[in-house]
Amino acid sequence: MKEAGKILARIMDQLERSVKPGKMTQELDRLAAAEILKAGVRSAFKGYKGYPANICVSVNEEVVHGIPGRRKLIEGDIASIDIGIEMAGFFVDMAKTFPVGRVAAQKQELIDVTRESLEKAISKIRPGFKLFDISAAVQGHVEPRGFSVVRDFVGHGIGRQLHEEPQIPNFGSAGSGPALKDGMVLCVEPMINAGTWEVEILQDGWTAVTADRKPSAHFEHTVAICNGEPLVLTR
Ligand code: MF3
Ligand code: CO
Q: According to the model, what pLDDT value does residue 140 have?
């Protein structure tokens, strides 16, 4: 999983270089397909419950599961890229949100706070903490800054399957939940909205958007607990 995580992080770096005004989101998907092929791995998303693409690209008010298509990125957008791969029977999963050119200060702050909330959460992924310490770390960083935590989607365990137990909400009570132990591998993925936490699913059956159409950001890492420490596999 360490090796798969490094490969995935490299693919994400390649995709980041193509996030610019004028790019169609399906061009990012095509690039991802090429990089996945070149690395000799497999998209974990394509075909998952019928999902039609290699990656998810969620722009502005799109929260998660945006299907790449003919939408062109424009200056001032924020674009979240979510990508998972399978290698030798093991899965890894990550997401990042990027500004497209120069963006409004509030959008940049949303990106920064979401990324920081993931880092705060990662610091709790070690023996001695409980599962919902992770959740509380995200919520405790985000809500005092005026942003909201999406309720309808959660992080997850990962390994031989993309989604394993436990579910990891981005809100919850510190000090509660199952104890964290060496050998666990968890995907923590804060989905943070500028306005209301409520989301809707579009007609395509996949794309989740904010109910108030204000922007949303998403970061995700696959993190193993290894020798008593959090080891971020997708860095
Ligand atoms: N990173 C997301 C998840 O873990 C994306 C999966 S959606 C998919 O849950 F359907 F496209 F696979
Ligand atoms: Co995930």
A: 98
